Amino acid sequence: xxxxxxxxxxxxxxxxxxxxxxxxxxxxxxxxxxxxxxxxxxxxxxxxxxxxxxxxxxxxxxxxxxxxxxxxxxxxxxxxxxxxxxxxxxxxxxxxxxxxxxxxxxxxxxxxxxxxxxxxxxxxxxxxxxxxxxxxxxxxxxxxxxxxxxxxxxxxxxxxxxxxxxxxxxxxxxxxxxxxxxxxxxxxxxxxxxxxxxxxxxxxxxxxxxxxxxxxxxxxxxxxxxxxxx
Amino acid sequence: xxxxxxxxxxxxxxxxxxxxxxxxxxxxxxxxxxxxxxxxxxxxxxxxxxxxxxxxxxxxxxxxxxxxxxxxxxxxxxxxxxxxxxxxxxxxxxxxxxxxxxxxxxxxxxxxxxxxxxxxxxxxxxxxxxxxxxxxxxxxxxxxxxxxxxxxxxxxxxxxxxxxx
Lengths: 230, 165
Fold this sequence. Notes:
By secondary structure, chain A is mainly alpha-helical. Helix content of chain A is 82%, strand content 0%.
């Protein structure tokens, strides 16, 4: 069984990289560490620090989503690209003061003193996370929508992280989570397209949206087949 | 707004010396048991919290975690609660709702005096007043008003023993 120290160190190490904005990996790893530490709180059964980590993950998430879309394989129309770059600039402007604030230092200090896991309690918490993933899977099988798939993927990710803290095998969850990841990137891009189009119609962007909706349909069918739900 | 100043419950002594050892101090099993009674007592009084702000030290986090049974909103951590009371701390506190801050002595007593009496007595007088509001471990001071110097009134002052009856 592992304690939280390695991921707190991971978070501490990547905060300066995220702050500098020079390497997208910095923000990505801050988000990953934040998510993993939230699962550690689940295993501890703690309520405190959960909102702090959510704030950190959400702040990093906006920057990360935009960076992924801008670096992705899609041919983005110029106007839309400029819009995304503007949004990224705003998101970084919001994230930097947060990461440099006394609050982040306090959060790191608090995470560093988290107690070790108690095995029985942690295993019961894992059971709850697995039960939630099963409920999400059932909801997905009844209503195979992108939203239900995303909810299932998130629940699966929590189970994977929990198992890794407990030193249990998590290969199945990891493979499934990665397989469903591309679809989520597509969902993020579609959301950003919607935000751009709400400012005014753009023929090129509308054409991209149509193409992406077709791709989403195809990816969704593949994902459901992989999950045995086709 | 209503503000509950909560001193962390009874903790184990530090293992080793220095600041790090002090940060790592967990609650003593007796501290946990006694503070659960405090929370039960507060619940009996109908207390529900919109926000908990806690010091990042382990004994404060563990106290806040027990107090979170009364929480209906959010919680966050603040380094200002592990330091003498400051304008920065007051600026962090919302102006509405009922919230609890979990921290340490002598800072909480200093904060209490500052919120009740403001600055008009001067720093030298403040120093001697702090001893007159001794917050025991797991104790609670319940204030009401505006979170600014001299902006609050004392509604109740509970040593933890009150809730053991």
